Recover the amino acids of this structure.
């Protein structure tokens, strides 16, 4: 962006722009009164009508013809015009001497001769400047750069052009011959050469020849012709409107006129070919003269030209009048004005050659140049324009000048170019302006009633609209309605047709009235205005800067012919404002507001004046001001006042009041003047009807004021009169000859004033009351209610909306607002009050504002009751501020004190600058307290707490105490995080570190004053490790076998301790062995998908379940109650497990399990009896609830051998199940796989090697003892009661058809005839069965180990004792008959068999025996496998034969020998219920007992891994070894 030039125009600030609503726009005077307080401060304002307000253009374009004014732009500006006038004088001076003025160029710009001449004069003159060598200073003063010898050039140009003119001005060339000769010798004295440098400056052909503007000749002022307004006239602003232009004989008008249009840019003068005539100073030796004589001769005034010249004869015409010699006739010059003769060398300054043109002698030159300069004015153009023709000319000028379409030229560019053109003397741009065109002749731009323009119905509103300028001046609120005559331009609008650069100069409206201008269409009009209060300041500045113009024309500013750059006025302190008036906008100027401007292009505007009531006082001041300037008035102010007074009854009360005041001043002044005149000697009085005379006929001959009330006349001067102020200027006759002419007597004026006074009295009373109320001071101030009552009274009486009422309303509104705000401040407290709030609300005041507000309350014209209270509030706030300052200065302030002070601040609804500081200090104090509190309790100072405190501290305002605490906290956090990370890595180390290394670290972190979880965990881990090691040491030192529960708990706890523990691995391996043992035992005992636990299977049943849930609950309850009487809470498995865990040794555990066994037997006996009783034939079968489905028995049933309950075959047996030789147990009673004893004993032996006690181990131990004990009892019963050998009986299974052959017919018949169901598999009959046998059988079935004795006993009891008895009887009869009787006696009497306590005899197999058997097994294994493959087909065949033999076997056969030959016995698996596996490879295992038989691994439940690791002992060998 380019920087503006120093001399570039800078636009002033914009004036106010108002956009009224339709409601406001309805009354123009009310709206203007409303905006006047704002707009009069700038002098001008712009009003944009509401959208849609577009009056039609009603002017008759075809009839409109006008002659515009010619405006040469550089003649408009005051300072430029002074320069032009000066150059015209210089040019005329040289022209009269036969030379043309050429303005030289210095430093590539035209030399300002006016400024040069002024600067030299200010420095004391040419001689002093030369003597003191001040030419360089003058060059600097004129803006030339130093160091380029510009001063020498300026001195040369001054001496050549200006010095002769200044000598002429001083009268040196008109001196007497003797003095002239001396002066000539003085000028050329050699002594001056020491002071004056005379460089030989070559002729500059680039000098620009100056063409005079001929301002004096062009402006011959004459009185303008009378306009169309015959009854009244407009103030004669332009005295040259109808003037003529001087035309020399033989020349054509405007022959040498400069071009009217010139393109933008600097003017570059073309080199002149005319030879310049050098002006030299004659140098002759002269006599030395004194300094006094020299000064006297140098500054001698021009002699009076009134002295007649001496008489000369004809010969003297050819004699030099200076030297009196007629010699050198070729050097004699003859004056073209008076024909006097002068030698060229006698002239001052002397001439080298004879001038080619006309030459004037010094006398004629003095006569021509001493003519008074005429006043400046515009000349009329030579052409009459129509509106269309003028527009074409205007658009062509602008487009040619700016070389672009008119609508594309920016307004800023036009504005800057305008002010550049008016300030330059180099460029002469001439424009034309159609101004002050009477609308009465050509029609207004607004429609009027009965006009030639036909208005449409939609536009009729504009006929009576107040903004129609034809209506505005004559509306009732306008005072001009009381002026009787139409005044063109004031009460009748004037039209203005402008073009680019056409301007209206600085002026104020006639009589200092308002004006309103409306731009109908066209390009904008740029306005500049100064407020009315700055009018005298603007006049003083212009008089100061252009005094020469005001000497010629004292009323220059009233002629509208002079402008001055707004920037120049603003630099001297005059407030200037601007605006661009666009089409459809109004511009209003206020009283005595100077304004000027120019047009941006072709446009059409209309303007009119109006006056409101507030203007009346200014109107009288304006008349007095006009009297001082000797300026005529447009209308008589006194006449207007008297006209309004004559209509007192119809006047508005406000207007009546204003008229009464003005009339009072008028009567007082008139009375004083008439008294003065009478005292001066005027005796004659005569009444005159001045209202009937034209204004020109009653003007004061001195001040040109229009007389109305009175005037002085003299008989010697008919038609001449003066006002009473200028009685001395009438004539030279004695005052006694004068006559006082009056319009009204004073007695006539007083009644008129009283009538107006009476009209305005009521309003004046109200107004005086309002004024008194507004101006009341201190205790005399009224309350706000008084102000409201005055406003209500004005509305009731419909007083006009004037300044006083508006001021009253404004003061009342301010007082009400202040009262409301004061009450809010007193009530305190914001509507949304939060103790944590810190933001400023929009309605909050600062303390300074509150202080100013309190002052405002006391400065109000009314008294408010809140003012004293608010003053007290202000005092409290100031006390709060003082306390806050003290508190903020103290660094040890606590939070309680700060909070209490903040709590006090909430009572002040004021923005307190201390509040943010207090909140910051409160936050700092709270943070410090938080840090201190966290530091005092180590458990609360965690890493997260420290980080949180640091984050909070970062957001705090810096404070020394906070920064210190922050530094300590940051350091502590860094150290803590370091040790936390380190201890975390130590605790996570794998393998764990030793206790010594961890203890060393724990000692280091013990001194950190913070809660460090990892460090505390480290310390706790070390403590737990020490306790664990102590427990482990105590465990090793104990003599008893440790419990698995305690061992497992120690392992779990040891694994959780991140410290290297020596015994932990040993204990882990021991626990792993126990876990492996438990898994092996679970695989051995538990069935697939069994819901029983291993301990539940191995322990005696503490809860006996039945098929019916109801009976089950009842039985369980009975058993539980029974158990409580005998034992200590062994009701469930958890009680048993807890009891086993609490035992100290195996013996106690076995005793506990023995108690559980007793509970089991008792509960099962009751259950069996209950189930048997419900299945008796007398029972109602359909009412029974049996089986797992709890439905009545029906169809094929199965009866559990243990609980004796019945089950539906379809509910408990799958279709793939086959009838077995084993006793059938229900799902509730079959709890395990019931492995053989030879599989259980190795488990017990391996557990004893582990040396760890666990409940499952004690239960297994008890199970084995119970099994061996039962086995011994069973054998004793067999031997005591004479039962068949159990082992032999087992070899012959019962017949597969399931029919019991030894039952008595009665039992069999009862069972099948009276029941609606039948059993698929028979049960042991309980009739005639002793309790001992039944208990033995029940306990055998309860054992979770399979024994051949159990199966044999089952078959013996199932087949019945009769068959066995028959066989035994035969043998007994042969041997000893008494044995049979003995057996019968035992069975019938139910005596028990003798019991013997059996002990487990452990088969001690040494290492040699085991190793030997393993080697033998390895040697025989391959051969055995080959043999097994060969016999595979044979085995299948044998199995088929066995099945056939079983089916064909007779029921009477009690024993069947399945043994074939010896070879077959070796090839067959001797296991009970051999599964006869098939395949290419069948795994075998050899018994490590005494039989050394081979068994299928799958038949005896041994895996290949177990067969490799453990010894296998078959059931028979286990039993035999146990014996």
């Amino acid at each position: 962006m380019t920087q503006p030039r120093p001399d570039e125009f800078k636009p002033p600030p914009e004036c106010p722009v108002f956009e009224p609503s339709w409601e406001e726009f309805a009354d123009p005077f009310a709206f203007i009164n409303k905006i006047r307080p704002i707009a009069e401060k700038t002098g001008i304002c712009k009003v944009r009508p509401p959208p849609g307000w577009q009056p039609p253009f009603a002017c008759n374009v075809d009839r409109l013809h006008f002659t515009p004014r010619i405006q040469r732009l550089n003649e408009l500006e005051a300072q430029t015009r002074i320069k032009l006038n000066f150059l015209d004088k210089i040019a005329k001076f040289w022209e009269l001497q036969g030379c043309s003025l050429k303005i030289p160029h210095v430093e590539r710009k035209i030399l300002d001769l006016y400024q040069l001449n002024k600067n030299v004069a200010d420095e004391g003159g040419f001689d002093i400047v030369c003597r003191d060598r001040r030419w360089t200073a003058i060059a600097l003063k004129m803006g030339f750069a130093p160091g380029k010898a510009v001063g020498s050039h300026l001195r040369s140009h001054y001496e050549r052009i200006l010095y002769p003119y200044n000598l002429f001005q001083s009268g040196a060339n008109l001196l007497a011959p003797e003095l002239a000769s001396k002066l000539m010798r003085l000028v050329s004295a050699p002594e001056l050469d020491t002071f004056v440098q005379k460089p030989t400056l070559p002729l500059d052909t680039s000098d620009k020849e100056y063409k005079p503007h001929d301002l004096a000749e062009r402006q011959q002022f004459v009185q303008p012709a009378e306009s169309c307004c015959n009854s009244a006239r407009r103030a004669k602003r332009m005295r040259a409107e109808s003037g003529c232009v001087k035309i020399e004989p033989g020349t054509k008008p405007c022959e040498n006129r400069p071009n009217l249009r010139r393109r933008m840019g600097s003017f570059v003068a073309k080199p002149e070919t005319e030879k310049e005539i050098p002006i030299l100073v004659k140098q002759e030796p002269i006599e030395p003269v004194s300094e006094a004589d020299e000064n006297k001769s140098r500054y001698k005034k021009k002699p009076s030209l009134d002295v007649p010249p001496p008489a000369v004869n004809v010969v003297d015409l050819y004699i030099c009048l200076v030297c009196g010699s007629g010699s050198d006739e070729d050097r004699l010059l003859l004056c073209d004005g008076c024909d006097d003769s002068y030698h060229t060398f006698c002239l001052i300054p002397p001439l080298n050659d004879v001038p080619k043109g006309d030459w004037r002698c010094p006398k004629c030159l003095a006569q021509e140049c001493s003519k008074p300069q005429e006043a400046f004015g515009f000349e009329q153009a030579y052409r009459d324009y129509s509106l269309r023709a003028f527009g074409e000319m205007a658009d062509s000028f602008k487009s040619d000048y700016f070389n672009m379409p008119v609508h594309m030229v920016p307004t800023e560019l036009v504005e800057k170019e305008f002010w550049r053109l008016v300030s330059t003397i180099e460029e002469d741009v001439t424009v034309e302006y159609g101004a002050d065109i009477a609308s009465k002749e050509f029609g207004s731009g607004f429609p009027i009633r009965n006009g030639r323009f036909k208005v449409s119905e939609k536009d009729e509103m504009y006929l009576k609209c107040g903004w129609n300028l034809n209506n505005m001046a004559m509306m009732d609120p306008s005072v001009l309605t009381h002026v009787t005559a139409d005044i063109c331009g004031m009460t009748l609008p004037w039209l203005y047709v402008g073009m680019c650069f056409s301007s209206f100069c600085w002026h104020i409206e006639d009589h200092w009235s308002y004006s309103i201008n409306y731009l109908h269409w066209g390009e904008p009009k740029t306005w500049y205005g100064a407020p009315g209060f700055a009018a005298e300041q603007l006049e003083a500045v212009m008089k100061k800067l252009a005094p020469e113009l005001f000497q010629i024309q004292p009323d220059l500013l009233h002629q509208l012919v002079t402008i001055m750059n707004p920037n120049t006025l603003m630099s001297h302190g005059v407030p200037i404002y601007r605006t661009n008036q666009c089409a459809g906008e109004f511009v209003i100027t206020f009283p005595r507001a100077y304004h000027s401007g120019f047009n941006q292009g072709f446009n059409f505007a209309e303007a009119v004046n109006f006056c409101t009531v507030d203007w009346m006082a200014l109107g009288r001041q304006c008349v007095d001001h006009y009297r001082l300037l000797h300026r005529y008035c447009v209308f008589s102010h006194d006449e207007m006042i008297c006209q309004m007074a004559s209509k007192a009854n119809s006047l508005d009360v406000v207007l009546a009041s204003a008229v009464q005041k003005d009339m009072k001043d008028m009567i007082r002044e008139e009375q004083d003047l008439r008294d003065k005149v009478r005292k001066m000697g005027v005796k004659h009085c005569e009444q005159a009807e001045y209202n009937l005379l034209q204004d020109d006929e009653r003007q004061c001959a001195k001040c040109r004021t229009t007389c109305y009330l009175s005037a002085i006349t003299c008989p010697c001067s008919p038609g001449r009169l003066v006002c009473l102020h200028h009685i001395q200027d009438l004539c030279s006759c004695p005052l006694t000859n004068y006559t006082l002419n009056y319009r009204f007597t004073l007695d006539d004026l007083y009644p008129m004033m009283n009538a107006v006074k009476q009209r305005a009295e009521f309003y004046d009373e109200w107004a005086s009351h309002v004024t008194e109320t507004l101006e009341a001071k201190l205790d005399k101030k009224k309350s706000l209610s008084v102000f409201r009552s005055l406003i209500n009274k004005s509305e009731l009486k419909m007083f006009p909306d004037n300044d006083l009422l508006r001021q009253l309303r404004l003061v009342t509104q301010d007082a009400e607002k202040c009262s409301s705000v004061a009450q809010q401040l007193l009530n305190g407290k914001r509507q949304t009050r939060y103790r944590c709030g810190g933001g400023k609300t929009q309605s909050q005041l600062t303390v300074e504002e509150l202080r100013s507000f309190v002052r405002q309350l006391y400065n109000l014209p009314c008294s408010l009751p809140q003012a004293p209270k608010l003053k007290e509030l202000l005092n409290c706030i100031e006390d709060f501020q003082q306390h806050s300052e003290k508190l903020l200065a103290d660094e040890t302030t606590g939070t309680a004190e700060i909070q209490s002070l903040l709590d006090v601040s909430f009572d002040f609804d004021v923005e307190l600058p201390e509040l943010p500081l207090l909140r910051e200090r409160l936050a700092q104090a709270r943070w410090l307290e938080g840090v201190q509190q966290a530091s005092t309790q180590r458990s609360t100072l965690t890493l997260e707490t420290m980080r949180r405190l640091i984050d909070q501290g970062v957001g705090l305002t810096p404070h020394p105490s906070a920064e210190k605490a922050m530094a300590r906290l940051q350091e502590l956090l860094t150290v803590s995080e370091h040790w936390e990370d380190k201890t975390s890595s130590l605790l996570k180390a794998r393998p764990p570190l030793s206790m010594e290394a961890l203890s060393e670290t724990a000692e280091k972190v013990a001194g950190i004053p913070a809660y460090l979880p990892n460090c505390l965990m480290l310390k706790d881990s070390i403590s737990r490790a020490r306790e664990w090691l102590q427990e482990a040491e105590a465990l090793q030192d104990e003599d008893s076998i440790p419990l698995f529960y305690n061992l497992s708990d120690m392992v779990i706890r040891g694994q959780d301790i991140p410290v290297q523990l020596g015994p932990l691995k040993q204990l882990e391996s021991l626990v792993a062995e126990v876990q492996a043992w438990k898994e092996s035992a679970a695989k051995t005992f538990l069935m697939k998908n069994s819901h029983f636990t291993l301990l539940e299977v191995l322990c005696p049943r503490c809860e006996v379940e039945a098929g019916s849930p109801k009976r089950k609950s009842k039985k369980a309850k009975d058993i539980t109650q029974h158990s409580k009487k005998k034992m200590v809470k062994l009701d469930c498995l958890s009680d048993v497990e807890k009891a086993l865990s609490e035992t100290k040794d195996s013996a106690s555990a076995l005793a506990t399990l023995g108690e559980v066994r007793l509970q089991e037997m008792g509960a099962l006996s009751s259950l069996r009896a209950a189930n048997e009783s419900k299945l008796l034939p007398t029972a109602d079968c359909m009412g029974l609830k049996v089986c797992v489905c709890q439905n009545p028995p029906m169809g094929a049933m199965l009866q559990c051998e243990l609980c004796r309950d019945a089950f539906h075959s379809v509910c408990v047996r799958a279709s793939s199940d086959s009838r077995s030789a084993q006793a059938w147990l229900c799902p509730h009673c079959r709890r395990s796989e019931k492995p053989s004893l030879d599989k259980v004993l190795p488990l017990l032996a391996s557990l004893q090697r582990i040396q760890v006690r666990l409940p499952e181990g004690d239960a297994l131990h008890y199970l084995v003892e119970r099994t061996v004990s039962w086995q011994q009892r069973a054998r004793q019963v067999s031997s005591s009661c004479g039962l068949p050998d159990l082992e032999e009986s087992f070899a012959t299974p019962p017949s597969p058809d399931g029919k019991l052959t030894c039952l008595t017919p009665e039992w069999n018949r009862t069972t099948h005839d009276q029941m609606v169901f039948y059993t698929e598999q028979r049960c042991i009959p309980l009739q005639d069965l002793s309790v001992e046998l039944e208990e033995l059988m029940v306990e055998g079935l309860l054992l979770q180990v399979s024994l051949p004795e159990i199966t044999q006993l089952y078959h013996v009891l199932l087949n019945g004792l009769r068959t066995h008895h028959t066989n035994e009887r035969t043998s007994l009869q042969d041997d000893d008959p008494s044995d049979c009787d003995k057996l019968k006696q035992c069975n019938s009497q139910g005596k028990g068999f003798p019991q013997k306590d059996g002990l487990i005899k452990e088969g001690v197999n040494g290492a040699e025996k085991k190793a030997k058997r393993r080697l033998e097994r390895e040697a025989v294994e391959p051969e055995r496998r080959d043999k097994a493959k060969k016999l595979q087909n044979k085995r299948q065949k044998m199995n088929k034969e066995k099945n056939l033999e079983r089916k064909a076997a007779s029921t009477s056969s009690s024993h069947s020998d399945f043994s074939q030959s010896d070879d077959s016995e070796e090839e067959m698996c001797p296991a009970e219920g051999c599964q006869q596996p098939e395949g290419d490879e069948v795994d075998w295992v050899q018994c490590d007992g005494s039989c050394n038989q081979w068994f299928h691994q799958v038949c005896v439940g041994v895996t290949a891994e177990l067969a490799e690791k453990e010894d296998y002992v078959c059931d028979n060998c286990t039993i035999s070894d146990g014996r």
